[in-house]
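Open question from group meeting: does this chain pack into something compact, or does most of it stay loose? Before anyone orders reagents, we agreed to write out a predicted structure and look at it together. Recording both the input and the output here so the notebook holds the full record.
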Amino acid sequence: MSAMEKVVRELAYELWEHAGRPDGRSDEFWFAARFELQRREETGEAELGSAVRRRVEPPRHESAADRSLAA
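Structure tokens returned:
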């Protein structure tokens, strides 16, 4: 494993933890980590200890159908 792959893996793991450790989304976090590292290089934020911005998902709104299924 190259040094770059190791950095991507570590960042992907950090992103995954921040997202609540969801199952079945490993590719999403791998590509997000690669994109973030590329962005850091392009903007001069190549420091590995840089803060990771969390992806915020919009709140899920419950519909009347969802409520009837829960009953």
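Observations to bring back to the group:
The chain has a mean pLDDT of 78.
The chain has one domain: 3-57.
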